[in-house]
Amino acid sequence: MFLSVSIQINHTSNMSISTTPFTANNRSYSPPAQPIAVICIDGCADEYISESIAQGYMPRLEAMLKKGYRGMVRGALPSFTNVNNSAIVTGAPPAVTGICGNFFLNPETNEEVMMNSPEFRRCDTLLNAAADAGRKVAFITAKEKLRTVLGDGIVERGGIVFSTEKVTEAEKETHGVDNAEDIIGKPQPEIYSGDASVYVLEAGAALVEQGKADFLYLSLTDYMQHKFGPWDQESLEFYKQLDDQIGRLLDAGCIVAATADHGMNAKNTDAGEPQVIYVQTLLHEKFGAEGIHVICPITDPYVVHHGALGSLVMVHLEDPSRAPELIDFLMRQEGITEAHDREMAALKLELAPDRIGDITVLSGRDYVVGKTAADHDLSVLKGGLRSHGGRYEEMVPLLLSEPLNNEYKLIANADPRNFDVFAFACNGAS
Ligand SMILES: [Zn+2]
After folding, report:
1. Which range among 50-54, 153-157, 269-273, 410-414 shows the weakest confidence by mean pLDDT?
2. How large is the average pLDDT for residues 132-151?
3. How far is the CA of 387 from the centre of ligand 1 (A)?
4. 191 C-alpha to center of ligand 1: Å?
């Protein structure tokens, strides 16, 4: 039974919103006395925004951007979800967070490990710093994995953290709130759906409207973007639903800032088949199987929509001195665009050297890289593959409901990052 929640917007509540400045990871944030809602639209290449606005499916966002700011920012590599969400909630690159993939080969145990708990993260989140400064923090995600990796410390500080995926498990003690479904006024949707993302924004809007949160991070899932291109009707209708909720957040008085963790590109041959380079197979054929091991750091339990295929893999070598020879070979392959040894990858891709392979391999806009054919189930990819992970999914939109002040105009014209989004929201408004 879900009672329809009558919406009461407390226009006087801004008096109680903390404006205490705070710092996190050597960055300063001075939030104004307004609710702040930062949205990570998972997999939102800029074309999704352009196409949805052009076809009239995002009127609220279109109006918001006329008044505010729309630009492009560079994400963190690998252009994966965990990597970039970790960067966004800390305001720091993967070299600082230590989160360089969904998956890594632990050098201490030599086992492939899923980075699904906060102990892998090497710095605290700005969400906790905001809560310490008196903000009512809410971190709502579509996928449970992000709640567990990035949500630590918030509930202890009086904030709220839950995921669409496990919304029914939310309890005051562990999630900061009981009866989350009642607050949202809707039952839990299917996780493999666009609704899983819409629900995150509905939750965020409900929490602001009901005065339960004033500093929000709302992180969606890229299920729809993996399945549909920007021009597909399903995508346009999905973005329309996002637009309705962005409108709700604006109506509730929020500063709204949105970015993406990564873009999304079709990765198919002209015949529409997934265009895959199996890097381990390729290297074993050329150099022998001994001491060469490829891991796919995009791997996670939600792989149904991309077959664990992305545009970046790591090669681990028993003998790292072989790296230059392998890099030279890899760089000659069509579809491979970059291959860096460990030191250069750490330097140029801002990665933690102990969390990556001896070689980091990136593929082109229309290619993915995998391990061996047997390691990837292409049968799940009916209708072709759309994925991410490499350089060509690095640039993403940054959308802000406010016009930029002079300081942030300069930043926007330099090399702004998606993990600057909280700084833009807190400090960037003119
Ligand atoms: Zn994805």
Report:
1. 269-273
2. 96
3. 6
4. 14
Q: How far is the CA of 428 from the centre of ligand 1 (A)?
A: 29
Q: How far is the CA of 309 from the centre of ligand 1 (A)?
A: 9
CA 215 to ligand 1 centroid distance, Å: 26
- Cα 86 to chain center, whole Å? 8
Q: Are 265 and 387 in contact (CB under 8 A)?
A: yes
Distance 143 CA to ligand 1 centre (A): 12
Q: State the DSSP code for 253.
A: T
pLDDT at 15: 66
Burial of 360 (0-12, 13-18, 19+ CB in 10 A): buried
**What's the rounded mean pLDDT across residues 72-83?**
96
C-alpha of residue 384 to centroid of ligand 1, in Å: 14
| Averaged pLDDT for residues 211-238 | 97
Alpha helices by DSSP H, listed for 68-143, are 81-90, 94-97, 126-132
pLDDT of res. 8? 47
Distance 398 CA to ligand 1 centre (A): 19
**pLDDT tens, 371-382?**
999 988 888 777
Query: Average per-residue pLDDT in the chain?
Result: 93
Neighbour count for residue 332 (Cβ, 10 Å): 9
Domains of the chain: 34-108+115-263+394-427 (3.40.720.10), 276-387 (3.30.1360.110)
Q: Where are the alpha helices (DSSP H) in 68-186?
A: 81-90, 94-97, 126-132, 144-150, 172-175, 180-184
366 C-beta neighbours (distance < 10 Å), count: 16
In the reported structure, the alpha carbon of residue 179 is separated from the centroid of ligand 1 by a whole-number distance in angstroms of 29
Residue 357 in tokens: 């392979």
365 Cα to the center of ligand 1, angstroms: 15
State the helix-helix crossing angle for 233-251 and 195-209, rounded to 10 degrees: 10
pLDDT tens column, 342-398: 999 999 999 999 999 999 999 999 999 999 999 888 887 777 899 999 999 999 999
Q: How far is the CA of 63 from the centre of ligand 1 (A)?
A: 29
- Spatial distance between the Cα atoms of 91 and 128, rounded to a whole number of angstroms: 12
Distance 80 CA to ligand 1 centre (A): 7
> Tokens 């149904």 belong to which residue?
304
**How far does the centroid of ligand 1 lie from the alpha carbon of residue 354, in Å?**
24
Ligand 1 centre from 304 Cα, in Å?
10
Q: For 364-383, what is the HEC assignment? A: CCCCEEECCHHHCCHHHCCC
